[in-house]
Amino acid sequence: MGYRLTRENLNTLFHKLKEDYFIYAPKRLLGKGAFSDTDRVRYAAIDRVEEIEFDVKSDFSFKEVIMPISETLFFFTEDKVKEAEGPKKGAVIFLRSCDLNAVKRLDQIYLKNGFEDHYYKRIREKVKFILMPCSSSFENCFCVSMGTNKTDKYDLSIDKKDDYFYVDNKEEVLEEFFKEEGLEELEVKPAFVTENNINVKVPEGITNKIFNSKLWQEYDERCINCGRCNFVCPTCTCFSMQDIFYTDNKKVGERRRVWASCMVDGFTDVAGGGKYRNKNGQRMRFKVMHKVYDYKKRNGYHMCVGCGRCDDICPQYISFSNCINKLEDAIKEVEDNE
């Protein structure tokens, strides 16, 4: 059902939802930007609709809500192990179409990849998604090319227009609230982007031969292996394990799952001092091929959702979309040299 809400209506809804959920949305964090006197738009808990940035693409994705940057899995003593408790309340997350399509990728990796990740699942089962429709494309987005500019997998959509909020509701439990508020039903359809300023073309017939292209050598010099592209990406899922030992008893502590990055030093280190991918170009090759080649071979659709955050955040101005568009010529170059 569709409804038109005022700010007061929406804040009343938030007050009701907060009984069982934390509400997360893109929020402007003043003075937290990368440079002096700049802000950062990042996901944070909000209480009122006035805190939500509807008209700006968030610098970071929603994933840190359902995949905490550092998550305690269990506690241990000399002779006992106790699993860390899961969240007491659920989460309501505001996100855009590309990010909602990214949820499908995360679910595939953590729930349908031959096993179910217990820690991811217990958070995921308590999450509701509110779609933030995009009326126009943001800088560096290429969601249309990746087929992620549209979705119908939301629980609620909220489209801000002037001083009103237009809601498309799919949650039966919320219908009672809208009726109590005396809101008139109307037809509401979320707005979806139909074109971006940037278009990409993933070539058909990619094979392992692309690994031998000289294309990747460019990134040996340009990339500084900071890992920012991985951390803002809504579909990067790599992590490492850390055991934390307490200072008052070195035999007691906790094990944490912590985000990791395929672009940084140490990610591919193995026993004996070996490294699978020592050069930055090799790491770039691995990341790109994972996003637009091998993931699709296994699952039938690309891992990348075209949000463009990797382009936004890179201090070296490396463009992921531009790299994808170089693949066709790189394939031809390898074939000509055979």
UniProtKB/TrEMBL annotation:
InterPro entries to which the protein is assigned, alphabetical: 4Fe4S_Fe-S-bd, 4Fe4S_Fe_S_CS, Helical_ferredxn, Sulphite_reductase_A
Pfam families xrefs: Fer4_22
Gene3D superfamilies found in the cross-reference section: Alpha-helical ferredoxin (1.10.1060.10)
SUPFAM superfamilies cross-referenced by the UniProt entry: alpha-helical ferredoxin (SSF46548)
GO molecular function: iron-sulfur cluster binding
Entries under NCBIfam families matching the protein: sulfite_red_A
Protein name stated in the entry: Anaerobic sulfite reductase subunit A
